[in-house]
Amino acid sequence: MALRAVAVAAPELPEGGPGVFTLKSSDPASLFNACRVAARQAARGVGAWGETAWARSRADRRDRVLLMHSLADDLPAFDALLAREQPNLLLIGAMSVCLPGAIACAARAKELLGDDVCVVLGGRHPSEAMYVDGAGVVRHHVSSPVRLMAEGLVPPVFDLVVSGEGEDVIRLLGEAVAGQVHANRPPSDAAAVAAGVRGAAGRWVVGWYDGTEARAVVAGGAPLHRQTLPTPAECFGVTAAFDVFDGRLTGHVFSDTGNGCVFDCDFCSERRSVTGGLFEAGTAAGRLVRQMRSVAEVVAEDSPGYGAAAFVEDSTLVGGSPRQLADLARILGEAELPVRFGCQFTIDQILSRGSLIEDLHAVGLDYVFIGVETLEPEQIGGMDKDQRVRNGTWSSRSRQAIDRLASIGVKAGAAVLFGLGETQDRRLALLRQMADWRADYGSPTPVSLNWATQHPLRGGDHGTGYRYTDWSIPPGRWVKAFANFGEATALYPVHGAPPPRVEEVEEVVRLYEELI
Ligand code: SF4
Fold first, then answer.
1. Which protein residue has the closest C-alpha to ligand 1 atom 8?
2. Where are the domains of the chain?
3. Which of 102, 129, 189, 416 would bridge with 456, disulfide CB 3.0–4.6 Å?
């Protein structure tokens, strides 16, 4: 076979696995989304992908996708994957905090496979660090992997870097690598492989460093048709199980409206001014139901006897649009799918769309995850989603939202976010408040801890200028302190906030373990 492809989610930690309280799925959902068009080609036996091991079964495709948490713990599995597959296309997905892990994995692949592998970096970090500006010029943030290689700060271990919508790009990368192999040319020839993706649909940039200067190919303008995208479940199966769904196998589903949110909270990498907001939002409900149906069918086919559940990855469910929420309730009611599901809403969406949430509960909504972040948004410079200040304080509306969900019979989980400039006293007060709500309402459960991390934000990082080449959480005491956090950082605090002190983080964790 000409093409041998593997895909890896880069580790965010130098050592140590996720703590027992972290909310981390066993599935690399972003990587599944990115690789799904290529996976469908494989499943249909079409082109170069159709001749690879990806063509055999969902289980075979999963076997070629690896989710890494820490470099030290997961490097043996990565080495084993490279040794077994001898890939000539290695796709690495990375958030900013994963950049050191991505560099280490790419370097390892180059050490073992040399020019016989084309190493491609994609994901959130390249998408924020390499972008096309309003004048149509490709820009490189100081943390752009292409720029870092050009400046000699990172060895030339990435042959190509992909920014933006990668679904169709990855399909054509596979074809281009196979073409190189057929022509007896190295798959790592960046210019030749990049030339092969020119016709890919979507908004994307493919960049590389040719040893002299940064080069790039930019999308030609063909749109990515969201209505026809395959579902991750049909491509990769469903094997994770979220505790909140009582053992049901749980698929990640998405309305495919892009990575954006309808809100614009300054600290958030999903905010609309960075991501461009939502796309094809008027048909979101239909796409979401198609993904849920796919989860139900795949669970019934691959794991008969198990129940099915889905967690919706939209920043807020179908953008919180009342019309789309009503459509979703109606279509789910007609479809009668055997799927329970969870999603995310803002506090104010819960309070203003209570009857729609009741309708959704009647057709499967069991769980809502909310971002509480802080009790006093004014202390952290405000939050765009804090829209109904005239109706009471953020804290009182948060309580009302949890009360409302409990009265409907919907479980709630919550994320808190430290590191936005609040005092240590306020952090401890927030945890005590969470414990009080849990005593009163039985939720939020779980409560996820996060420490705000500055992202490149397509240059909107307020000049912090981080390059992300050092581990965001250094090994040793920091790794232990942040073990039960989701995203967190010791090195890359958000603009205007001081870096965390390890003693304070440890005090937060002690109270969390005691109360929550
Ligand atoms: S509402 Fe949530 S996801 Fe949307 S921008 Fe604000 S913090 Fe980010």
1. 268
2. 5-218
3. 129
Q: Cα angle vertex 166, ends 165, 169, to 5°?
A: 120
Residues β-bridged to residue 162: 206
Under 8 Å between Cβ of 410 and 357: yes
Q: Indicate which atom in ligand 1 lies nearest the CA of residue 346.
A: 1
The CA radius of gyration of the chain, in Å to the nearest whole number, is 22
Q: Strand, helix or coil at 215?
A: strand
Q: Whose CA is nearest to atom 3 of ligand 1?
A: 315
CB contact burial 419-446 (16+ within 10 A = b; e otherwise): bbbbeeebbbebbebbbebbeebebbbb
Point out the ligand 1 atom lying closest to the alpha carbon of residue 315: 3
Average pLDDT over residues 264-270: 84
Give the tens place of pLDDT for each residue, 53-77.
999 999 999 999 999 999 999 999 9
Residue 271 CA to ligand 1 center (angstroms) comes to 6
> How far is the centre of ligand 1, averaged over its atoms, from the C-alpha of 491 (Å)?
23
Distance 56 CA to ligand 1 centre (A): 39
Task: Choose which residue among 264, 265, 316 to substitute to test ligand 1 binding: the one with the highest number of ligand atoms within 8 A of its C-beta.
Answer: 265
Could you read off the pLDDT of 169-185 as tens digits, one per residue? 999 999 999 999 999 99
Query: How confident is the model at residue 23, as a pLDDT?
Result: 56
Partners of 413 in the β-ladder: 369
Q: Ligand 1 site: residues with CB under 6 angstroms?
A: 261, 263-265, 268, 270-271, 315, 346, 371, 384-385
Strand partners, 343: 368
